[in-house]
Amino acid sequence: MGTYGSCGTGDVSVGPIEGGMLQMKVNLPQQTRLALEQAAEKNGWSLNREVVSRLDASTKDDSSCGDGSVAVFCRALGSALAAVEHQRGKSIFEDLPTALAGRQAVLNLLDTLTPMFALEEIEQQHELLVSIANAAEMEIRDRERKGERVSAVERLLIRVRHRQNAELQVTLMDRQLKRTWDYRHSLRPEGARDES
After folding, report:
1. DSSP secondary structure string, 69-137?
2. What distance in Å separates the CA atoms of residue 137 and residue 130, rounded to the nearest whole number?
3. 103 and 138: one domain?
């Protein structure tokens, strides 16, 4: 067994290694200790196990989230949900209002992924789809006003024709959006890291 030694600023003391475990003495603010004790009690284990569990989680390389911008997004997602739970004092899995607030936090975070020019394009696509759907119904009504009998099959064909027109328009808008995206990325300085 070794003797205790000082590590760093003196806030951590390192003790002997026993059975693969390193004993450490850590000075914590009272609020942090109380929060850890409450979490340990809620999880049904010791304060030591709570601290080790949290340290393990914070030091593991979580490859399930990928790397680069995906890993950053995963951490941001976890932080957003943790902030909601901390603010409300309840779990998103146990309290409906907290779950709804967590959902909104996730949606807000997802909005940050879509560039503003893309949001405008998506809104234009939605408006186009609505107007084309309305155009199909207007065509049917106009024909009925003129005294024409519009069968169920003809109604379906009119709607399909307008839908195909809408899909073509959306495809063209998507292509334009991609060209805009590619152009904006081509303007980036040489060697700039692509996080998108």
Report:
1. HHHHHHHHHHHHHHHHHHHHTS-TTT-HHHHHHHHHHHHHHHHTTS-HHHHHHHHHHHHHHHHHHHHHH
2. 11
3. no
Q: What is the pTM of this model?
A: 0.34
CB atoms within 10 A of CB 170: 17
Q: Which residues contact 144 (CB under 8 A, 6 or more apart)?
A: 150
According to the model, what pLDDT value does residue 119 have? 64
The pLDDT tens digits for 89-118 are 888 888 888 888 988 888 888 777 666 556
Taking only the tens place, the pLDDT of each residue in 119-133 is: 677 777 777 777 877
**Structural domain boundaries, residue 169:** 116-186
Q: Picking from 47-51, 60-64, 81-85, 91-95, which range would have the lowest pLDDT averaged per residue?
A: 60-64
| Rg (the chain; Cα; Å) | 29
Half-sphere exposure of 145 (CA within 13 A, CB side): 6
Look at residue 194 and tell me if it is in a domain. no
Specify the DSSP element, H or E, that contains 153: helix 152-186
Does residue 67 share a domain with residue 17? no
Residue 61 has pLDDT above 50, yes or no: yes
